[in-house]
Amino acid sequence: MKYTKLERNWVMYDVGNSALVLLNTSVVPIYFNAINTGADAATAVTAWANAQTIASLVVALLMPILGSLADYAGNKIKFFTGFFLTGVVLCLAQAIPMPAMVFLTIYVLCTIGLNSSMTFYDAMLPDVTTDDRMDAVSSSGYAWGYIGSCVPFILCIALIMGGPALLGIDMLVAARLSFIITGAWWVAFTVPLLRTYKQRFGKQRDEAGVLTNIANTFRGLGTTCKSILRNKVLLVFMIAFFFYIDGVHTVISMATTYGASLGIDSTQLVLALLVTQFVAFPSAIAYGSLARRCGTLRMIIVAVAAYVGIVLFAAFFLKSAAEFWILAILVGLFQGGVQALSRSYFGRLIPKERANEYYGFFDIFGRYASVMGTLLVSVVTSLTGNPSLGVLSIGILLVAGLVMLVKLSKMQAAAA
């Protein structure tokens, strides 16, 4: 399929922001553990899980309101740019030497900027393509994000691993330089979208003024809630998404911290996650193609069922570096597909002119799920002192999401 210039530029933002996502799931937890001296494994896992929880909660609370305001014609790019710049500045700020808890605070704020920009980015999808091309374009975003993010990541890893011997710099200094490299990459692949994006769908502003538009925003949120409740297909999907995306996000965000708590060498952890990116590239493209042949919902169900197996494997069998490599490959096979198809499936169910508002609610379900997942891992690990039991608890949420997806499939089959 040949992509338009705007579709290509939209995909490029995934290439840019995925570099930071990859850094956050690999190098950053290891760097945090290195500067958080004196903490035991359970304490480190708990602190990291709490940071993820706070970041997700803030984004979940902000996005419906800001998303509704962004739906007014011309606003979407302004909100997107503001959060993107916030994320970039704080990404660069993490390169400054600081105590572990100060670093974790800046990391949380940077993550809020990153994830908020991605919500507005997701809501651009109806503006940049058509319904029949959404699966392919969304899947390409994730696919090229995976493979493209490997370029700065490999550079950062080479600097961290080879810096002490070749350049005479400490590994912690090299890790800090990786924030600068990643921030520069993020900016480079965002500029084309900023230059070419035009909001096609949006709400018309009330001529009465800003305060009236803000009041209309809050009234509109109530109307959207009622619309979601009346649309049974949309409601069941969002409930299912609430549960299953928790497993996806929590596995991604907690993988390296969990692996480190088991005593797996940091080099093995990072290289295994790099393999995840390479596996995820063709897998995400394949998911876009299979969705056209087999159905988008069916392929989401397949991916969620696979994630149930992944969590069981991590909880019961993950003990060595070799098993972590197996986990990384399994995650790569299904991670991009389930995220991309969830984004495009939702985009086809909602009214285009209120995309940001609906994606804000979509983000509530996704972010609160992430809050629940990381909080569940944190609580179970703290109570038991066993990170494996914390990981196992994620499976409950995945199974709940799977049950709702099967129900949705039956609803659609009955309506056909």
Brief summary:
The chain is mainly alpha-helical. The protein is 85% helix and 0% strand. It is globular, with a radius of gyration of 21 Å.
Terminal CA distance reads 29 Å
Radius of gyration: 21 Å
The number of helices is: 17
Strand content: under 5%
Mean pLDDT across residues: 81
- The geometry reads as globular
Quick one: how many beta strands? 0
The chain-level structural class is mainly alpha
The largest pleated sheet is described as:
none
Query: Can you give the helix content as a percent range?
Result: over 70%
Low-confidence stretches: none
Task: Give the topology string: H per helix, E per strand.
Answer: HHHHHHHHHHHHHHHHH
Which terms would index this structure?
17 helices
Structure explained in plain terms:
The protein has helices spanning 5-25, 27-35, 41-70, 76-93, 100-123, 125-128, 134-167, 171-188, 191-196, 210-230, 232-261, 266-294, 296-316, 321-349, 355-384, 387-392, 394-415. By secondary structure, the chain is an all-alpha fold. The two termini are 29 Å apart.
